[in-house]
Amino acid sequence: AAPAPATGFSFGSTAPAPAPSTTGFSFGSPAPAPSTTTGGLFGSTTAAAPAATGGLFGSSAPAPAPAFGAAPSSGFGGSGGFGFGGTTQTTPAAAAPVPATSFTPADQAALYAHQQQTHQRQEAERLEKSLTSLHSAYNAVPGNAECRFQHIFYDSADANVVYQHRALGIGRPAHVDVKSWAEAEAHNPDPEKLIPVSVMGVEQLQSRISNQQAQSHKLRSTLTQLRTAVDDVKQSVAKNDARAQNYKNEQLAMVNKVLRTMRKVEVLRCMNIPTQPAEREYRERLDNVIHGLANLQRGLTMW
């Protein structure tokens, strides 16, 4: 005789399942369930192996994988499930651990630490690159084309050096590009006496300043000597002017003496000699001049 089918509300009775079927709300009757995948909590998946699934109140049910990696809990003294005293049938597939895809606080902390390390590493690389660029910009190593602490000045040179610089093209350093050197050549204030010179770094600039200061001291010393010489010349000129003035006074006195002597000699020569017509004419002119001066003097006296 065929076994009687299981009733819905029997307590403790079992119903054989010739074919996989799903029983809903039977009390105590085990119901086999096909292998299915049910959704877990918070997006996790729970794999259920082919096992008999029971109903509530004493039926046996497979234990799903706990959410967040927790151990399965038992209900009211039973192992697994929600039955009162019922046992849970587990299979090797159901006992395998199921990875959780949700982020725990430890995972979030690890992710944040990884992001911080990545940010710090990128910041350190950026800072190292900036320091390297700054070092290259002020590194005065010969041949460093990236050095920004450089400038082209002009130095005086003799004719041979200027000829070699202009005719043979000698003088352009390797770290100076052709365009900058050509501009320096074009803006040379005195191509016949000056040549462009590249100065790179603090040491070369300090050396150039020291040379200029030494030349300045030398020129200052020469200027002091010239001023002393000029003062000596001025004193000599003043002495010579005074001496020349004395000579002029002596000459004037000698001229007066000569005139007086000539007058006396002329008087002696013309003694007992009749007066010439020219002499009488000059005598009349002299008398007229003397008379005019006398009238002028009387007029000034009246005023």
Provide an overview of this structure.
Pfam families: Nup54 (PF13874). It is found in: Nucleus. This is Nucleoporin Nup54 alpha-helical domain-containing protein. Its main location: nucleus. A hairpin with a 5-residue loop joins strand 2 and strand 3. The chain has a domain of 33 residues. The chain contains 6 helices and 6 strands. The protein is mainly alpha-helical. The N terminus is likely disordered. The protein is rod-shaped, with a radius of gyration of 65 Å. It has a two-stranded antiparallel ribbon. A two-stranded antiparallel ribbon has the order 2-3. 50% of the residues lie in helices and 10% in strands.
What's the quick description here?
One of its GO terms (molecular function) is structural constituent of nuclear pore. By secondary structure, the chain is mainly alpha-helical. The protein has helices at 92-95, 105-137, 159-167, 178-186, 201-269, 277-302; strands spanning 30-33, 36-39, 45-48, 51-54, 150-156, 194-200.
Jot down its keywords.
Nup54/Nup57/Nup44, 50% helix, mainly alpha, 303 residues, transport, two-stranded antiparallel sheet
Give the helix proportion (percent range): 40-55%
Shape, principal axes of CA atoms: rod-shaped
Oligomer: single chain
Q: Beta-strand percentage?
A: 5-15%
